[in-house]
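User: Fold this; tokens only.

Assistant: Input:
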Amino acid sequence: MTGKAKVLLDDKFGKEKRIMILATVGGTLFGVLGYIFPLTVGDGSYQIGAVIIEGGSMSTAVLVASLFVKMTTFWISNETGFVGGLLYPLLLMGSIIGRIFVNELGWSWGSCMAPGLVSIVSAFVPVPMGLMVLSMSVFNLSSRGGISTLICVVTAHLLFVGTGITRRLQKKKKK
């Protein structure tokens, strides 16, 4: 969608004005969504702690809506020219997923939050053992407590990075 908009705006206004128009529209959408859903503001580095510590007091509906809006705002910021990284937004999305499992299913905190934190990241970032150590040290898990994290990280890594899906998607985007 934004690719077609970029071509149309380039033809009509030129590259400089297209960048300004897309950045203005993207910033407005990001700001409005961030005002409505405070968990989606910024890269997610501050919100991760809130989800982990205070997420038990948040309703599942708020968490699910915030998850989908964070995915949308991440896409908006990437496609409209804003600078940002991949790690913190994906960590926030994963921690929200882990918190949803803890809130809804009543499973233990460490067995859901630790794998949830790094589950999405390990599908895109090729450092599975580093992510496992990150998750285990954030939640102070023992080697036995980290088994679910290890299974989650290795599975996500093998399914996406190991099969080459992400490389094919990047090649497709460049075309």
